[in-house]
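User: Teach me something about this protein's shape.
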Amino acid sequence: MILGKDVNPKKQIYYLSAQILYELNQTDNKEFDYLYIYHRIKLNEDISLNLYTLSLDWLFILGAIKRGKNGLLRCI
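Assistant: First, the predicted structure itself:
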């Protein structure tokens, strides 16, 4: 379930996806390594690799990111 009533808001896919987009927009690079972004997010948020992957899946579904030759490409 994407939205839960009894879950910490910082553990929600919407919130974590926004944090991922924030990190992607901090530089002028358009392509990013999968684990580099995870470690950047991990500095500020207590996020598991599983939840990070679900958040990336959500961003793929929305069309905000896509797979590039060497990593993740931001589309927005």
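Now, about its shape. The two ends are 25 Å apart (CA to CA). Strands lie at 31-32, 65-67, 72-74. If you'd like, I can walk through any region in more detail.
User: That's plenty for now, thanks!
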